[in-house]
Design brief:
The complex is a heterotrimer of chains A (159), B (266) and C (666).
Chain A: E1 8-13, H1 17-26, E2 35-40, H2 48-56, E3 61-66, H3 77-94, E4 102-106, H4 112-129, H5 133-139, H6 141-144, H7 147-158
Parallel strand pairs in A: 1-2, 1-3, 3-4
Helix pairs in contact in A: 1-4
Chain B: H1 2-13, E1 19-24, E2 31-35, H2 61-64, E3 69-72, H3 75-86, E4 95-100, E5 106-109, H4 112-121, H5 128-139, H6 142-154, H7 161-165, H8 190-202, H9 213-217, H10 225-239, H11 243-248
Parallel strand pairs in B: 1-3, 3-4
Antiparallel strand pairs in B: 1-2, 4-5
Chain C: E1 4-9, H1 21-29, E2 34-40, H2 46-59, E3 63-68, H3 71-84, E4 92-96, H4 98-102, H5 109-127, E5 135-138, E6 142-146, H6 150-161, E7 165-169, E8 184-185, E9 190-191, H7 192-205, E10 209-212, E11 215-223, E12 226-233, H8 248-252, E13 258-259, E14 268-269, E15 272-273, E16 285-286, H9 292-296, H10 301-305, E17 318-324, E18 326-329, E19 333-335, E20 352-354, H11 355-362, E21 383-390, H12 406-420, E22 425-430, H13 440-449, E23 454-457, E24 460-466, E25 469-476, E26 482-488, E27 490-495, E28 497-499, H14 503-510, E29 537-539, H15 549-567, E30 571-574, E31 579-581, H16 597-601, E32 607-613, E33 619-626, H17 636-640, E34 646-648, H18 653-664
Parallel strand pairs in C: 1-2, 1-3, 3-4, 6-7, 6-18, 7-10, 18-29, 20-27, 21-22, 21-27, 22-23
Antiparallel strand pairs in C: 5-30, 8-9, 11-12, 12-17, 13-14, 15-16, 19-28, 24-25, 25-26, 31-34, 32-33
The chains are: A alpha/beta (159), B alpha/beta (266), C alpha/beta (666).
């Protein structure tokens, strides 16, 4: 298969989107298998560092999804999360990190079809963007080093 | 200047405070000084070159002990003091907050409301160099910005001078020292550096005084203060909280409004 | 060293039709730390569970991953199975291979690969799981009901009849609330007092209910099952142990010109008074602000006439504290006063009334003994105009919501008027008629069709006085906005129901949230209508939003059922999936620096302050502490804490980090 298959990680809340994705399954709605879901109690629990880690470890795209405003199982976790993502996106964009690779969405426990849409939409969008090697390259410590320095070090050890 | 020295001497002599934190002449720039005796107040200075944020020392328990302190706070240090009060890190009854106004007048603040009022009327010290760089960055494409920042931050060798200079970096255990899990790799490499600076900036949300001390402290001169400045900008633009409101009230990230914008959410 | 067991379920063919379950099990067996991996047709069946239990015992497993359906379906099943085999149930995790994999993807290699990855994620997570124990919170079986209106009365009686102790606190001298002011009630027109007063008496006489009238909540501390309430008993200036309620003092009191709250200012009362004849308790209090003795130092008529010597002028306010396990808020509502509507007469026209004032005019116990008479001159109005939605559904006025009850009580008012003034004409200006409720629509139709009330769809622009008449200028939008002008003798504004003054302060005292209109906020708009976001505090009636009597009573019984349910056990058992603030060895004790920003982020007020003290008792530092009785486990504080001083059991930083890292590492 020549087409690039992006790796997508989805960070979802237990009460709305996880249940919504369960409904997608119960309804037998098919969607791309590129996505893997990580379950959190609430979008308020999702640490922004986990998104960065996902990119560093090879994710090409990320979905963050929870309850619609006013439907949060914990009243306001999604509101807190929303503020966090507003700031986070702004900062990432300022630093030139590709925020188009992060899809935020509200998917309720009744929106099984929407979940399939969100996943397929993200897979298509990220496929067009290509693999996120730019970010991963920064993670590769050795690749950043000037080869001559590495060679030089070896030479020193031999001495 | 004389007025400030007199005031400091009075405070020390009367025993109202046990230490004055201020500026003195340094080799190239003014530097912080810690005065415990009225006899030493003659070296105190305060002028436009005094930009280091002295509020950073207020959370240093080994320095302060249980003493009552007077501080000659710059415009930005006043913001930091408001925030430190909100975050329960300092107590107003253990502190005499002084500043020197643009009219060269010494002002002693009695309440936080007085500080807030002063911040709203006093002119914000300009930082022209930053403006030009911010404009340049905003004109760049995303790819160019990434090139810029990954190149700049690849130079960082994690000396944490930025952290030491920041009044808000008072955590007993910093995220970089957290190793269960190891959120940020301890070595200096591009991504580990980027992650550190993202964390530093995110942790400043609604708390940063925008004083630029982190950037000024960087031995490599990396423009890292622009990251926290960007956060200040995001808070202002998105939550309609200007920086003075943000630092004096509840935290921008631990509160919310149901009508906060969400045009990026599907 | 971890010894993880992986159990892959075929779910009949639900999973195995698209996922190669044998391969998943085989690959799982190769994963680092996996001791045992197998697949089986129905893992949730008895033999399947036995398979897991045996493996736990035989292989000495330290963790279990079941790759099957959604954890929302069978997590309790498998955790229970693990517990039965002696493994802490929180060391069991589920990987969702059915809803999130086999059912949504085609049968191919990628689907099986994904299944393997999903299992690997949970294997890595479960390695970091820690044994957890259910949280037990002791419960004081005594409820505090705040407010003695119909909501509070119903809730208190339901709880008391279930055999539990109730303390009722009412700020007025008598219980009864707004319902006691009503004349007759829609849609049956039965007399409000006739159905309410027996309930009031029942409250007063119930052995399980302690009633404090003329009292307010001063302070509330603690958490679910373990609250401590401080109640202020306002000085009544009358010793209720001596007072027989003969009422002589109230007839002799020389200060007789005080507007009666019960009669909404349409009648007068004395300074020593009982609010109304059927008051419970039927004993007077002295309104110190209006009493000649308290204001001028002379009078003491009541003391002289009292046959039992019950008057005691220098009684101070008293404070009592009570240990309670649950709180029911039933503080009710208020209505907007007419001065809210400058265009309708600035509150200056004596005969422009609120609906609640009209209730008093129509009530047999009211100032006119039930005859509809103008407050200005006592004449019977021959033409009366009712204006619905006065203030409600009017964003410009700041009250965008529908007050819900006005359509019904306006129809009732017009009907009562027609019954009492046979030759009178009544008009109702309305926006829409909202008569949703059993027999409600029929009731409105009756007003229009049987009693001849004239309904005009349109709004009233202005009311002004001219030759002793009130000129009501409006428009009839069903006739193409034709201007309408009515010369009325009386106007009744169906003013919006609003929150009680002081509701905000009370909410803050109890740490419960309230909405933009200062109504108390329910924990979930659909599924937790009687809970607040603070565990153990419930709410009912119009303090949550305007509502009618049946709905209020239903909600009160709902809140009571929640309290009774809570009190049905000696201990409250909760899932341990909550946040905890870490502790560490001296000299740091905890990495928490005490900025307490998490306090503002917590929707449940579960974060408290804890002082860490040295051996000499001095405070070393003040750090955050999570109250396990209140925390619901959303984890917002965890993601928020900069120094990672708070973590969440079951979804800890280490667990989530491991899960994410496992997902992508190759």
């Amino acid at each position: 298969m020549s087409e690039f298959e992006p790796k997508i990680v989805a960070f979802v809340c237990n009460w709305c989107t996880y249940a919504g994705a369960d409904l997608t399954g119960t309804s037998r709605i098919k969607y791309a298998s590129n996505v893997k879901i990580v379950r959190f109690p609430c979008t308020g629990r999702i640490d922004f560092m986990l998104l960065l880690k996902a990119f560093a470890e090879g994710a090409d795209g990320i979905i963050v999804s929870g309850c619609h405003p006013n439907d949060c199982h914990y009243t306001s976790g999604n509101f807190h999360a929303r503020r966090r993502w507003v700031i986070f996106r702004g900062l990432l964009n300022f630093m030139g990190i590709d925020v188009n690779r992060i899809q935020f969405s509200w998917v309720s426990a009744a929106e099984g079809a929407k979940w399939a849409d969100v996943v397929n939409g993200t897979v298509t969008a990220v496929r067009e963007l290509g693999p996120y090697t730019q970010y991963r390259k920064a993670a590769d410590y050795l690749a950043q080093q000037d080869q001559s320095i590495i060679d030089g070090q070896e030479a020193m050890i031999i001495k | 200047m004389e007025e400030l020295r007199k005031k400091a001497a009075e405070l020390l002599q009367s025993g109202e405070v046990q230490m004055v934190i201020g500026y003195e002449e340094g080799t190239r720039h003014p530097r912080p000084c810690f005065i415990s005796s009225a006899d030493d107040t003659a070296k105190l200075i305060y002028d436009d070159r005094c930009t280091g944020n002295l509020a950073v020392y207020l959370t240093h328990k080994e320095l302060i002990g249980g003493q009552k302190i007077a501080i000659t706070a710059s415009y930005f240090a006043l913001r930091s003091i408001l925030r430190l009060l909100t975050e329960h890190q300092i107590q107003l009854d253990k502190l005499v907050v002084l500043t020197v106004s643009a009219e060269r007048e010494v002002i002693q603040f009695a309440t936080t409301d007085d500080i807030t009022a002063y911040l709203q009327t006093a002119p914000v010290p300009a930082r022209e160099d930053d403006k030009a760089l911010i404009e340049k960055l905003n004109a760049m494409s995303r790819e160019e910005r990434w090139e810029f920042w990954s190149a700049e931050l690849s130079k960082c060798f994690k000396c944490y001078a930025c952290r030491a200079a920041c009044p808000m970096c008072y955590c007993t255990k910093c995220i970089v020292e957290e190793n269960r899990p190891q959120w940020i790799q301890p070595w200096a490499s591009t991504l580990a550096n980027i992650e550190w600076h993202i964390n530093r900036a995110m942790h400043m949300t609604g708390r940063c005084a925008d004083c630029g001390a982190c950037g000024a402290a960087c031995p490599l001169g990396l423009p890292i203060h622009l990251l926290s400045h960007q956060i200040v900008q995001e808070v202002t633009d998105n939550f309609a909280l200007d920086v003075n409101q943000a630092v004096s009230g509840d935290n921008a990230l631990s509160t919310f409004k149901p009508e906060d914008k969400e045009n990026f959410i599907r | 060293m971890s010894k993880i067991g992986v159990f892959i379920c075929h779910c009949g063919e639900n999973i195995s039709a698209t996922v190669d379950c044998e391969k998943v099990a085989a690959e799982a067996g190769k994963m680092d730390g996996v001791e045992f991996a197998t697949d089986y047709k129905y893992m949730c069946s008895d033999p399947g569970q036995t398979l897991i239990k045996n493996a736990i015992k035989e292989k000495g497993l330290t963790g279990v991953v079941v790759g099957a359906c959604s954890p929302r379906m069978h997590e309790p099943t498998f955790r229970k199975a693990c517990a039965e085999a002696g493994l802490n149930p929180y060391l069991c995790e589920m990987s969702n291979l059915r809803e999130h994999c086999s059912w949504v993807h085609e049968k191919n290699e990628q689907t099986t690969e994904k299944a393997i990855d999903l299992v690997k994620m949970l294997v890595e997570k479960v390695k970091k799981n820690k044994p957890l124990n259910a949280i037990k919170v002791p419960i004081t079986k005594k409820a505090l009901v705040i407010g003695g209106g119909i909501a509070g009365i119903q809730a208190a009686l339901d709880i008391a009849n279930a055999g539990q102790q109730v303390i009722m606190v009412e700020k007025e001298p008598s219980i009864g609330g707004h319902m006691s002011q009503l004349s007759e009630t829609f849609p049956t027109l039965d007399c409000s007092q006739c159905i309410l007063t027996p309930r009031m008496v029942e409250v007063a006489q119930h052995p399980n209910i302690t009633l404090y009238t003329y009292a307010e909540l001063e302070h509330l501390d603690g958490f679910i099952g373990n609250f401590k309430a401080t109640i202020r008993l306002k000085a009544k200036s009358v010793d209720y142990k001596l007072c027989t309620g003969c009422g002589l003092c109230t007839t002799k009191c020389p200060s007789k010109k005080i507007p009666s709250e019960f009669n909404e200012g349409l009648g007068m009362r004395t300074a020593i008074y009982t609010p109304f004849p059927q008051a419970v308790p039927n004993k007077p209090v002295i309104d110190r602000a209006n009493c000649t003795y308290y204001q001028k130092g002379k009078c003491k008529v009541c003391e002289k006439v009292c046959p039992t010597g019950a008057i005691q002028y220098d009684l101070p306010d008293q404070f009592i504290t009570e240990d309670i396990g649950a709180v029911v808020i039933a503080t009710g509502f208020n209505v907007l006063k007419t001065d809210f509507f400058p265009e309708y007469g600035y509150g200056k026209y004596a005969d422009v009334l609120t609906g609640l004032q009209f209730e008093r005019l129509a009530s047999a116990s009211g100032p006119t003994l039930g005859e509809i008479r103008r407050p200005s001159d006592g004449k019977v109005p021959k033409k009366i105009v009712f204006i619905a939605c006065s203030g409600s559904r009017d964003p410009a006025k700041g009250i965008p919501y529908c007050s819900k009850i006005c359509c019904m009580y306006t129809a009732k008012h017009a009907m009562l008027y027609q019954h009492k003034v046979h030759d009178g004409e009544s008009y109702v200006f309305y926006m829409d008629i909202r008569a949703g409720g059993k027999n409600y629509e029929e009731f409105v139709r009756r007003a229009i069709e049987d009693d001849g009330v004239n309904y005009i769809r349109g709004r009233v622009a202005r009311i002004y006085e001219k030759d002793g008449k009130y000129i009501v200028k409006g428009a009839d939008t069903l006739l193409g906005s034709k201007p309408v002008e009515i010369e009325a003798d009386m106007v009744v504004l169906a003013t919006a129901g609003v929150s009680n003054p002081g509701a905000e302060e009370l909410a803050q005292k109890m740490h419960v949230s309230y909405d933009a209109y200062k109504f108390f906020a329910e924990a979930h708009p659909k599924l937790k209508p009687v809970e607040t976001n603070t565990a153990g505090i419930f709410l009912c009636g119009a303090c949550q939003a305007p509502k009618d009597i049946p709905e209020t009573v239903g909600m009160a019984s709902g809140a009571a059922a929640k309290v009774i349910g809570l009190f049905s056990n000696n201990e409250l058992t909760r899932e341990p999936l909550i946040a905890v603030v870490n502790r560490s060895a001296p000299p740091v004790f905890s990495t928490c620096v005490g900025c307490f920003m998490c306090q503002t982020a917590c929707p449940y007020n579960a974060i408290e302050r804890e002082e860490i003290k040295g051996r000499d008792g001095s405070v070393i530092k003040t750090v955050a502490k999570v109250n396990p009785g209140l925390c619901q486990g959303c984890g917002t504080c965890v993601a928020f804490c900069r120094s990672k001083a708070i973590d969440m059991q079951g979804f800890s930083n280490e667990q989530m980090f491991a899960e994410v890292m496992a997902l992508l590492n190759e």
